[in-house]
Amino acid sequence: MSISFRGGFYGGLALALCIGLYLIWLWRPERQVRRHTENFLHAIEHKNWTAAGDFIGSDYQDQWGDDRARVFERMREGFRYVRGVRISAFSVTVRVQRRRAEWMGRIWIEGDEGDVMDALKERVNSLATPFELEWRRISAKPWDWKLVRVSNSALEIPADIY
After folding, report:
1. Spatial contact of 104 and 90, defined as CB atoms under 8 Å apart
2. 37-41, 76-80, 137-141: lowest mean pLDDT where?
3. Cross-sheet strand order for the sheet of 100-110
4. Which of 46, 19, 32 is nearest to 99 (CA)?
5. Phi-psi region of 8 (alpha: psi -120 to 50; beta: other; left: phi over 0)
6. Are the beta carbons of 142 and 31 closer than 8 angstroms?
7. Residue pair 116/81 in contact by the 8 Å Cβ criterion
8. Of the candidates 71, 65, 69, 55, which has an alpha carbon nearest to the alpha carbon of residue 103?
9. What is the pLDDT of residues 102-151, one digit of tens each?
């Protein structure tokens, strides 16, 4: 059985169309924000601060007055004494408005028993209000999203911690 030029052309065209449709689906802003948030939380779980830093924008500010450098300092200190951390999110919604997106969801923390982990779980897992993560698309690339703000109206973090 031989393949003609026409058959090969149409086969290649169909393959290119399938790849194009997959990329359109993959690069939808809502999907990108969901994946970026999952990967960001995964990086924190594994204490991979370089990977976590790749998700945070240079203009990051949060409701607790932290900038990019300060939030890294707090993350490193806060997770230094915990082992086996697992962070999951549920009741997630994503709203996209052009180059901005808002991820809202509850965050649940689990991990090996210890005083610091117990305090962290008590503080975060008991929150009734969802976390709000604001993402901004930095360039024309559909995958180039950076975290620029985190907030949760019910979570209070004293300025003197860490």
Report:
1. no
2. 76-80
3. 86-97, 100-110, 131-137, 145-151
4. 32
5. alpha
6. no
7. yes
8. 55
9. 999 999 999 998 888 888 899 899 999 999 999 999 999 999 999 999 99
